[in-house]
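Go through the following before class.
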Amino acid sequence: MQASQPTDENSCQHCNSVGGRTTHRLASRVMSSQVQSRRTFLNSVAGGVYGAALASVAPDWFGSKRLAAAAHATEAPRDVYDLQARATHFEPKAKSVIQLFMNGGPSQMDLFDPKPELTKRHGESYFEKIAGEVEAPGGAGGLMRSPFKFAQHGESGMWVSDLMPHLARQVDSLAFIRSMHTVNLTHEPAIYKIHSGQMLPGYPAMGAWVTYGLGSENQNLPAYVVLDDPLGLPVNGVESWQSGFLPPVYQGTRLRSAGSPILNLRPDFNEPASITRMERDLQGHLNRIHRETRSGHPELDARISSFELAARMQLSATDALDLSQETPQTLEMYGIGDKSTDSYGRRCLMARRLVERGVRFVQLFINGQIWDNHKDIAKSLPGACRRTDKPVAGLLQDLIQRGLLGETLVLWGGEFGRLPIAQLDTNNSFDAAGRDHNKNAFTLWMAGAGVKSGIAYGETDEIGFAAAENKVSVTDWHATVLHLLGLDHKRLSFNRSGLEDRLTGVFEARIVKEILA
């Protein structure tokens, strides 16, 4: 005997179980012939409870076989780009990276590479010998000594100026490379170079390459996180963490360090967990159906992945960035609560909490280019150091205390260095002089997984103008970072228009094995 159809909308068992007569009316309406497109349908069911109702009353309307097939298609082939953890090329030393990028070009001879010869020859004319390497020749003066004092620190005896007293106490954990050099003395192309290996926009950032090669150990947080400054974007803006020609899923995700980490992360109203789960299941089914007929669209895959990740992040991101869980001692160690260090300290602490939870690559920026000290370096450079010195030292100390430095690679540095000659003001006074850009020499340091501690590798010439011994190019540095993560820079490639593109491009690159533990 055939069951009679309900004539009273209150008697529909599906609607009574999930929402009542309003849901029944909506379900009937969206199954009618009036619905002509997927967009119209999604607009109709976007209200959560109504979508969940539809999932239960109308499986045949979507095609139950297609839904079932999509629901069980959990293993993606290799040509589907996602953030699932992947095998390394060889045994890695590091699991994650924290990059502390110092926009502007920190002055090597005023921070980590003391040059007594500059003191001896202070004021001596030198411009004519390096004229082709000066970006602003109109203000070029003579050789300029450092206005800061240097001392050796730690058991390793590393040289650090008095501008970084907190980092000076951590030098036995650092590997300085004093012989870095790059290929352009202008900020924008030099920044593109150190982030992507090329001097032009449109290429993937190193963080995108790393997540393309390794995926992530935590599927509830982004694999590549960017913590930029609330005061403003760095030079080159969001292009500093782009995915370029790699699938968009590998682009860096900006998280805010103040307020909610991501806008609209929390739902506008709470609903029962079962309803939320049914709604997400329905959306997932629809997305997979939509994608089945539109292969070869990485932007679509990335958009769907971002929707799914956003849902999972509602709990994970809030917890990961909740600094109220930290002790007062930890907050003080990072300089949180002090006006000059609070902002950068918060981001350094967030970086630790993120890598602790399996995030693969975390990048910290500071607004503008505070290390670009063309004028009055005696006053401007101390300000840049004051904002970052204690937070960075606190991060290193915290990673050591928690046993995380052994699996985390920490990178510090800018896009180039500074010249040994003065850049004079309109009064031609050394008292308010700064330093111009220098592509021929700069210093950066690395710490953590797989890196020797308490060493200085490479040398510059007697005045700090050019790398002179054991030179390291940006390409060499990229290859070394990938190596520490278990990735062969020659094998980590992406086929673009028939060419195998790499972070290291077509350039010669060597692993800087001398700094490896």
